[in-house]
Design brief:
There is one protein chain. The chain has 189 residues and is mainly α. The protein has one domain. Helices cover 87% and strands 0% of the residues. The longest helix is centred in the N-terminal third of the chain and has 52 residues, at 3-54. It starts with a helix and ends in a 10-residue tail after the last helix. The chain crosses the membrane at residues 21-42, 62-84, 96-118, 138-160.
Length: 189
């Protein structure tokens, strides 16, 4: 290689890294702007959606809170386990990625409720007031539903783990018995 070609390669690499840095910076600035816009919008909007769903009914708040908490906790956990199992198989990376994205989308209702409960900005406080009036008991029931979802997930994981362990034990016992010669029973008189 001539020195001109080496200089040309170095220059193209520098331009490539410069372009990547600029694109990364633009993406970071856009992400920060989107965060601030969504942080002021999502809690109010989500609280209004829940308020229109519950209509101020305590019973409906408990029912929908349990359903949202259970469904939008258990579903993402099961999808993440599916994604991990598929990821281990060769060629399953697309399915694993799709399952992980669907799990994140499925968890969004609980995450949006969490922004209202844990948020400290004015939008979160406005969302809390809307939930207090239009969706009573929703937040507490949603937390209980999420806990039930985690417990159901742990129970299912334990059952599947026990089944897999028993399957491995049976396979090991079958392999061990196949390796040993069969014993002939003693003659009966």
């Amino acid at each position: 290689m001539t020195s001109g070609e080496v200089d040309s390669q170095k220059s193209s690499r520098a331009i490539s890294w410069r372009n990547r840095a600029i694109i990364g910076g633009v993406i970071a600035v856009c992400a920060v702007i989107a965060y601030f816009i969504l942080a002021s919008f999502i809690p109010r909007w989500w609280a209004q959606r829940l308020g229109s769903l519950v209509h101020g009914s305590f019973t409906a708040g408990v029912w929908w809170g349990l359903v949202y908490g259970l469904l939008f906790t258990l579903g993402p956990l099961l999808l993440i386990v599916f994604a991990v199992r598929v990821w281990k198989r060769k060629g399953g990376r697309f399915m694993a990625g799709a399952a992980a994205i669907i799990a994140i989308v499925l968890a969004l209702p609980n995450l949006m409720t969490l922004t209202i409960v844990l948020g400290s900005n004015s939008a979160a406080h406005a969302g809390e007031q809307v939930l207090n009036v239009d969706a009573p008991a929703f937040r507490g029931a949603c937390a209980v539903g999420a806990i039930i979802g985690v417990l159901v997930f742990l129970a299912l994981s334990a059952l599947v783990g026990k089944r897999d362990l028993n399957r491995r034990k049976r396979a090991k016992a079958a392999a061990t018995s196949a390796d040993q010669p069969a014993e002939t029973p003693p003659p009966t008189v």
